[in-house]
Write a structure and sequence with these properties.
heterodimer, A: alpha+beta, Ubiquitin-like (UB roll), five-stranded mixed beta sheet, 2 helices, B: alpha/beta, Rossmann fold, 2 domains, six-stranded mixed beta sheet, four-stranded parallel beta sheet, 9 helices
Amino acid sequence: MAIEVKIPTILRTYTSGAKAVDGKGDTLSALIDDLDGNFPGLKGRLITDDGGLHRFVNVYVNDEDVRFTGALDTALKDGDAVTILPAVAGG
Amino acid sequence: MARYDSLIDALGDTPLVGLPNLSPSWDGERPVRLWVKLEDRNPTGSIKDRAALYMIRAAEADGRLTHGCTILEPTSGNTGISLAMVAKLRGYGLVCVMPENTSIERRQLLEMFGARIISSPAAGGSNQAVATAKELAKQYPDWVMLYQYGNEANARAHYEGTGPELLRDLPSITHFVAGLGTTGTLMGTGRYLREKVPDIQIIAAEPRYGELVYGLRNIDEGFVPELYDDSVLTSRFSVTSYDALRRTRDLIEHEGIFAGVSTGAILHAALSVADRVAARDERADIAFVVADGGWKYLSTGAYSGSLQQAAERLEGQLWA
């Protein structure tokens, strides 16, 4: 089971510069744990000490913001595309 | 009656039009219909006229803004153009802090209305414009920063305007979709509609830009507008430049509507939702906004050549 995860520029120091990496997991939480095994330290940049998503990190599964689909419990399946982006201003 | 005492009085009350060709089903027992509110019909051609007028009126009412004052605002363009028009008519100066990677049309319009533009570096996008404007506000304490990202009058313009107009024109509304920038449109319209139609779905479409725009040095430099309250939304989609452009062209091709790129992103989210509702065999009246027309984006090449070429040309541009 492979899920493609797009990594923003700012976090590529953890992935040796890779723009996208593969991971696995039935939920976003499991996926992030899996990623952290291969790219130590990445989890600490995405998840705060109290176990929630960092305020300035947005994660999308198939372009939909996970904060509205169950947050870290969002279910994943083979072939899903996960995108991680920092929160920036619009307008 | 379509007669007004001045241009400012002609603001708002924009038409809501159906999209019979792009809707999954227009007629029948359980139609799934798309409706679009033409906010490009506002005085300077964008939805931002509403927020600009409300923010200026609020600052006049609380005494911060008096004749001859200079207004300062970080903006990727449309808010600046709206403020520039109102400022010109009311006798204020305007300084806009704008990322350098915005379209030339926006700059020309601002200059035409007499605004002064201070450019912020492309790397860093609107975040950098906000930071630069905050610095300038400290240096020039007599300038009045309206600050659209945290000004409650921005959301109130939609709570008192966009929301009631939508419900009046579409009492059977089930979904509202708009772009997420300052979040003013979604917060104000969303709150109003939720009070009147408790089970309404409020959906955000945000632009996903090229990497340049996300050039932060640190996650902690991220930015969430002070106006944003995620409890107002029911879902939020991130839309690539490619999908936004594709839908912008679909709007012209199937409905004859020439809209800006951010409207394409909003349509993309609206269609995702419409398809889900249709798959469940339920009815829906989904309303979204045309935030602005396509005119200001012609120089970006958004409307010429193949979609792939156009999307590549748009890489690194701020289009919402």
